[in-house]
C-alpha cells in the first residue's frame, strides 16, 4: 500500500466513474478578513488589485521577461514551454530562480505579505512562471481548477494556496484575458479519467485531462456567471486555488503577458500525488518548503 492509498482524500478526482461535486468546507481566507480586498476575495474567490506595480516597475519587468523569452541559451531548458502550433515561448517556469528581479518580487511585502494574509501562515513558492500570449497566435487555457491539478498530480492536500497574476501588458476584454466564475471556489469539481505518467508534458501546452465535463461547466457558469480580469499593466488578479478559470485564444494584435506566482501555506506542504502518479518536476511543483523571508 502506498502513502496515497492510506490517506483520507477529501477531494477525490481523476476517477474511473463520474463523482459528484463537493461543497468546500475549507476556508477561503485562512487569516483574518480585515480589509475590503480580503472581503472581496473571500466572497468571490478573487479580487483585482489596481496598480500593484508602478509604471517604472512594469517596464523593468517587461524588459526582463522579453529578454528571457529571446535568450537562445534558455530555450532548450526544460522549464521553457513552447507553443504547439506557433513554436513560440508559451511559459517559463521557476522564473524566480532564473531572474533575480522576480526573486526580489516574490519576497516583496506587497506580494508575499498579501499571500500570508490570505493563507494565515508563512508561505513558500509552490510555482512561479511568466506567461506569454503573443498577438494573433496566443493560445488560451481551457477551463480548470488549479487545485484539482495540484491535488491530483502534485499531492497538495487542501486548497490552502493562492495565485497572483501580475499584468505586464494591458488586459482587454478581447485579447485572451483570464475569465473566472465568481464563487465557484466554494465547489470542488472532480474530474473523470486516469492520469498518464508525465502528463505535464502535454498539459502545460494543452490541457485535456483534469478538466470538468462540458455539462458540469455549463451548470457552473449558469450558477456563478463569468467575470473577466481586465485592467492596465501593473494591475494584478489574486485568486483562490480552486476557482474555475480559463482564457480564450488571442487573435488580436495586442499581446498579453503576466508574471504568475503561486504561494502555498507551509502548513499545506505536498505529499505523494493523489492521482497515484509520480510527482511532477520540482520546477512545476516545488518541494522546497522553506518559508519566504
From TrEMBL:
SUPFAM superfamilies: Clavaminate synthase-like
Reaction catalysed by this enzyme: L-ectoine + 2-oxoglutarate + O2 = 5-hydroxyectoine + succinate + CO2
Gene3D superfamilies in alphabetical order: q2cbj1_9rhob like domain (2.60.120.620)
Family matches, as InterPro entries: EctD (IPR012774), Phytyl_CoA_dOase-like (IPR008775)
Cofactor(s) demanded: Fe(2+)
Keyword terms, alphabetized: Dioxygenase, Iron, Metal-binding, Oxidoreductase
Domain of life, source organism: Bacteria
EC numbers for this chain: 1.14.11.55
Gene Ontology molecular-function annotations: 2-oxoglutarate-dependent dioxygenase activity; iron ion binding
Self-association state and partner proteins as the record states: Homodimer.
Family: Belongs to the PhyH family. EctD subfamily.
Job description of the protein: Involved in the biosynthesis of 5-hydroxyectoine, called compatible solute, which helps organisms to survive extreme osmotic stress by acting as a highly soluble organic osmolyte. Catalyzes the 2-oxoglutarate-dependent selective hydroxylation of L-ectoine to yield (4S,5S)-5-hydroxyectoine.
Protein name per its UniProtKB record: Ectoine hydroxylase
Amino acid at each position: 500500500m502506498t502513502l496515497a492509498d492510506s490517506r483520507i482524500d477529501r477531494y477525490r478526482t481523476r476517477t474511473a466513474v463520474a463523482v459528484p461535486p463537493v461543497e468546500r468546507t475549507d476556508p477561503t481566507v485562512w487569516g483574518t478578513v480585515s480589509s475590503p480586498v480580503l472581503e472581496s476575495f473571500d466572497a468571490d474567490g478573487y479580487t483585482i488589485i489596481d496598480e500593484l506595480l508602478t509604471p517604472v516597475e512594469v517596464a523593468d519587468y517587461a524588459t526582463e521577461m522579453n529578454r528571457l523569452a529571446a535568450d537562445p541559451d534558455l530555450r532548450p531548458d526544460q522549464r521553457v514551454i513552447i507553443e504547439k502550433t506557433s513554436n513560440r515561448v508559451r511559459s517559463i517556469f521557476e522564473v524566480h530562480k532564473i531572474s533575480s528581479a522576480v526573486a526580489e518580487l516574490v519576497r516583496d511585502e506587497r506580494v508575499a505579505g498579501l499571500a500570508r494574509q490570505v493563507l494565515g501562515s508563512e508561505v513558500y513558492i509552490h510555482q512561479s512562471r511568466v506567461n506569454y500570449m503573443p498577438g494573433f497566435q496566443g493560445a488560451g487555457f481551457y477551463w480548470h481548477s488549479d487545485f484539482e491539478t495540484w491535488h491530483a498530480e502534485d499531492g497538495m492536500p487542501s486548497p490552502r494556496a493562492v495565485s497572483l497574476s501580475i499584468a505586464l501588458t494591458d488586459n482587454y476584454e478581447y485579447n485572451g484575458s483570464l475569465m473566472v466564475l465568481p464563487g465557484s471556489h466554494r465547489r470542488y469539481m472532480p474530474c473523470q479519467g486516469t492520469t498518464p505518467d508525465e502528463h505535464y508534458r502535454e498539459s502545460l501546452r494543452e490541457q485535456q485531462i483534469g478538466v470538468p465535463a462540458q455539462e458540469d461547466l455549463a451548470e457552473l457558469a449558469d450558477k456563478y456567471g463569468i467575470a473577466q480580469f481586465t485592467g492596465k499593466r501593473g494591475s494584478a488578479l489574486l485568486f483562490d486555488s480552486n476557482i474555475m478559470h480559463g482564457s480564450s485564444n488571442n487573435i488580436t494584435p495586442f499581446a498579453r503577458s503576466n508574471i504568475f506566482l503561486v504561494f502555498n501555506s507551509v502548513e499545506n506542504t505536498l505529499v505523494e500525488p493523489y492521482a497515484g502518479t509520480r510527482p511532477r518536476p520540482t520546477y512545476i511543483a516545488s518541494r522546497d518548503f522553506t518559508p519566504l523571508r
